[in-house]
Amino acid sequence: MKFLLKSKLTKRFMTKTIVVILFALASIYFVTIGVLSRSLEQEIVYRDELIAKTLSRQIGTLFGGMKNDTRIASNYVLKYSQEDKQFYYAEMERIVTYNPLYLFVQAFDSQGNPLVTVPDVTFKGQLDIGKLVKRMEWSQTYYISDLLTLPDGRKTIAICYPALSQGQFWGGIVAFVNLDTLSDYLRELRIGDEGITLITDRGGSIIAHNNEQLIGSSLKEHPLSDFLYKERYGVWRGPLFGKDRLVAYRPLQYGGFGLIVGESSMQALAPARNVQILLSQGFIVVLLVSILLVLYNTSSVLKPVFRLTKQAREYKENKRKTFDRISTRDELEDLSNIMGEMARSLTDKERRLFYILESIPYCVITTDHHGRIATFNKGAEQLTQFRRDEVIGKYIIDVPFKENAEEFISWKTLQEGTEFVEVESYIFDKDKNRRDVVLYSSLFRGEDGNVIGAILVIRDVSDMRKLEEYLRQSERLASLGQLTAGVAHEIKNPLSIIQAAAEAIRLELKGGTADVPMLRELTDDILETSDRMNGLLADFLKLSKESAGEEKKKLNLVQILDELATLLRNKMKEQSIVLHREYETRDAGVLVNKNQMSQVFLNMMINSMQAMERGGHLFIRVREQDGHWLAELEDTGKGIAPGKLQRIFNPFFSTKREGTGLGLSIAYEIVTQHGGEISAASPEGKGACLTVKLPKAG
């Protein structure tokens, strides 16, 4: 029985059976309960409306009687004889004595001054009835006030009746109602233990409630208060005093008051609970019987399925290589035979794949879709010095191939879905030796297109990088020789000029009659030529090595370009050159020497402007690429011939007659010293584009 309960097949059949049975039983249950609840609710609504209607009529009668009492007592104010006053005073004593709804009755004159109070009561504070007097004076009819508070703290309402004679206001009677007695009356008429009966005034304050503690509470923000204020009546269900209630509401005849009668929804629908309990018990019995039937019918099928599943699990864990035959004389036996054939075929394919991976001379690492290492070939062991049993099963970012997790290309491939081809990078082996490598990284996808893993191929290029460095050094020495020869050639002509000028000065001085203007002209030629030689030698020194003492700082590449563009803006305007700035970002941090880098871009901008003598467009772009910033300067000038394009960074090569040919050579050297690259592209006749690639700072 235990294995049946753990079976997924049993759970699936049982789930389907339970769902079907629950759906059918739930449909019957909810339909039955729905019909019962609606019928019961209709009866409750009818009952509550009837009670509210009857109670509102009775309360209206009470208030009507009290209005008549105050109307009769108001004659006390109009009578002048002591005998008449005594009569109406006795009448006030009678209504107060025999009607417990009265607290006390007070007669007052036209100024609101009390004439007599029955019974005679005193308060610590003064009883203020000024507002009630003013109301009766202008309305000249009876008035029932909203909730009031007496000086002794008791809550009450006032029933007022004016004393009028020939249309003139002489005073009146105010009868204060005992709200506790009115609440006792409502308590006797409430429905059950959770019934509720209350009366509200025009402002939504409770003036009577079967729970006396709630007298004075406000329902102003409750929807029922708004309904009663608009003199509506009906039935409402919702939260009231912390419980869900079903109540009937209707306005009262006097005072603009409202009546609310009802009970909690739980109490109202209590008769339906017994039916719910009976139905629930029956449904539980049916459900249990259905579960037992499912267990009985699936037990004969599950035993061979469990045997087959156990063999498959052991095969997955490399605890077996074949499948045992299951004799059931049905489709399960055929399935066990097919799985055995598949296991033998898969074992052969795994063996072939293993030998292929081992024969590859490169490092090959595969991971699952979580980034855990699945295979680690012999080439990987030789390159990284890690044994495969040390890394298989670990997350690739946990193996110290890189200085930080963000540099793991295979991890980026899994996280971002980006494939990398021939990416130059590095790794550290087990002994912390750095190796220059070329990486290839791509995803594995299943038949459904979902990612199931990644492959990382690493090729060691450390020896190749050393050979390339030796080659660059040889090329540098060759260029230095060429540069020296060029400098010697460039200095030869100025020296000839200086020598000729010096000889001419000597001849002038021997003659004894020196021509001063001529001597001054020859001297100027010598100074001008020597300045030219000094500039040439200074450029040569800049080209040969980085200036000492000039530190690199983190600067904003965009800011350097903007400063140079601002410096040249007037010159561009004179040449009708339109400047276009296209920046992917305004914050491109690079670690450079500002003077040297300004010299690089200034030289490039001046070259572009000289190529557009008749005007044009200069585009300055900054964008990001593989951890570097690219600064592009593209012009719409005459361009550079393809045969000359490869030589523009060579010393003393220039496409301009007046150029020295050192500007771009110095720019090339400066950019290289900063760990960057500079390149040029130019379709002839369509302008040129120079690109500077610099590493990001930090």
TrEMBL record:
SMART domains: HATPase_c (SM00387), HisKA (SM00388), PAS (SM00091). Residues 421-473 form the PAC domain. Residues 486-698 form the Histidine kinase domain. Keywords: ATP-binding, Cell membrane, Kinase, Membrane, Nucleotide-binding, Phosphoprotein, Transferase, Transmembrane, Transmembrane helix, Two-component regulatory system. Its EC number is 2.7.13.3. It is found in: Cell membrane. It catalyses: ATP + protein L-histidine = ADP + protein N-phospho-L-histidine. InterPro entries: dCache_1, HATPase_C_sf, HATPase_dom, His_kinase_dom, HisK_dim/P_dom, HisK_dim/P_sf, PAS, PAS-assoc_C. The chain crosses the membrane at residues 277-297. Its main location: membrane. Residues 349-397 form the PAS domain. It holds the Pfam family dCache_1. It is a multi-pass membrane protein. Signal peptide: none annotated. The keyword Kinase applies. PANTHER family: PEROXIDE STRESS-ACTIVATED HISTIDINE KINASE MAK3, SENSOR HISTIDINE KINASE. This is histidine kinase. It comes from Gordoniibacillus kamchatkensis.
